[in-house]
Fold this sequence. Notes:
Blueprint: E1 7-10, E2 15-18, E3 26-31, H1 42-60, E4 64-69, E5 77-79, E6 83-86, H2 87-95, H3 99-116, H4 132-144, E7 148-151, E8 154-157, H5 159-165, H6 176-181, E9 198-203, E10 219-221, H7 223-235, E11 239-245, H8 249-264, E12 269-275, E13 278-280, E14 283-284, H9 295-300, H10 312-320, E15 328-330, H11 332-352, H12 365-377, H13 382-400, H14 408-425, H15 436-455, H16 459-471, E16 474-479, E17 482-487
Parallel strand pairs: 3-4, 3-11, 11-12, 13-15
Antiparallel strand pairs: 1-2, 5-6, 7-8, 8-9, 9-10, 13-14, 16-17
Helix pairs in contact: 2-3, 4-7, 7-8, 10-11, 11-13, 12-13, 15-16
Bound molecules: adenosine monophosphate and zinc ion.
Amino acid sequence: MIPNNLKIYNTLTRTTEKFEPLHTGHVGMYVCGPTVYSNAHLGNARTFMSFDVIFRYLTHLGYKVRYVRNITDAGHLESDADEGEDKISKKAKLEQLEPMEIVQRYTIDFHNMMQLFNALPPSIEPTATGHIIEQIEMTKKIIDNGYAYEAEGSIYFDVEKFSKEHNYTILTGRKLEDLMNGTRELGGQDEKRGRLDFALWIKAKPEHLMKWPSPWGVGFPGWHLECSAMSSKYLGDQFDIHGGGMDLAPTHHTNEIAQNLACSHKNPARYWIHTNMLTVNGQKMSKSLGNSFLPHELFTGNHKLLEKGYSPMTVRFFVLQAHYRSTLDFGNEALQAAEKGFTRLMNAVKLMDGVPVSNSSTSDIPTLVANVYAAMNDDFNTPIALSHLFEGVRIINSVNDKKETLSQDDKTLLTKLFNDFVFDILGLKEENEVNTDKIDGLMNMILDVRTDAKAKKDFTTSDLIRDKLKEIGFEIKDGKEGTSYTIN
Length: 488
Ligand code: AMP
Ligand code: ZN
């Protein structure tokens, strides 16, 4: 274990606190995952990349991390006020597909995107539809404990009752009265008793597609409930870190805390981490505002706001250049600067191995290493960590130009620093441009050798070449015009 000097900004206390895990050597972390009704955009990707770095750093420090990130595949309505259609059902109706076809399509898309950005998969990725029983059980418990009531087949959380005994707005520190004033009054038809009450279970209308039987009739769970049920199932009633984008704090996370407290009398997480938003011209990137970028638009440059395409690692580097709690504005200039920075970093990594060693060093490498750790220990400050790594880049280039010197011990230290931080923690990687011309040239050479073997009736060799190529994904077709290949 690397000594733990980690400090985390905790939304719950609004202070930066020393990180003390509940169980020595272990960390339980829950992050709210995507709602899989459309392609995840770059704003979503920023949040998940930030937690990927947190996951990687905790693991690097020696913790055994159980990282749970859910997939919301039911129950997320269009409005936070328990109104509107289920986002997934709406898309399914629009496209005349099964809701699970929508879920499958966008879950795969999300995974592909995360893989392109070199994000590690979480330890567990539970789905809301896979945990209906747990959500029903939790609802029953909250009713038994007196914090929820039934109305017309739906179950609502009684915020007024809860807030008499608990601080409902503990996470954001807002005043309950202000919240009340900011919420519209209940209409005459409303089943809710109080205007801040929210649904734990919603009675399904006959046309509703995703519904399940429950003690209160056929319905579906409220969105906030899935995270309470799944986090406690896999991480216990109390765990270390809960995260998500900061837009989730006022409603989704506030309600999650209320549900867990009402069920098990425990605030589920000790440290609440919230990422700030990716913005476009200062406005939150969001699908509904029409200013979102999809990853493939970014890679190809095929978007009206882009001058050219940027590689996944350039984008990851761009994300890392801002602290996760600052806003990050998306723009061509910033991306071009990130592209240059990433290339400079990778070029230094390539040089590292071959730089000459001397008897002594002109730079203080142990201090450089300590500075990088200090930055990451200061609430995962990736931009400061990167600025210190760039001091390393400067040293590598200077030593390579024989303007400065590096001892063998320091070279070993610097190499380890770059390997640990650039690759393992920041999750950057080399991007080898696939050179199609070179592949084509190589394949034509191999096919010529095979044609030659065939001409000499050496079918053992020609078949071996065909079979071996097939094994690695090249399909060969012999035709009248010669032999061609396709890549599978
Ligand atoms: P959703 O799929 O809408 O539930 O969002 C998934 C995650 O992405 C949540 O943690 C959101 O807070 C986060 N998110 C949404 N928009 C942005 C944005 N523009 N910048 C950063 N994170 C975002
Ligand atoms: Zn959640």
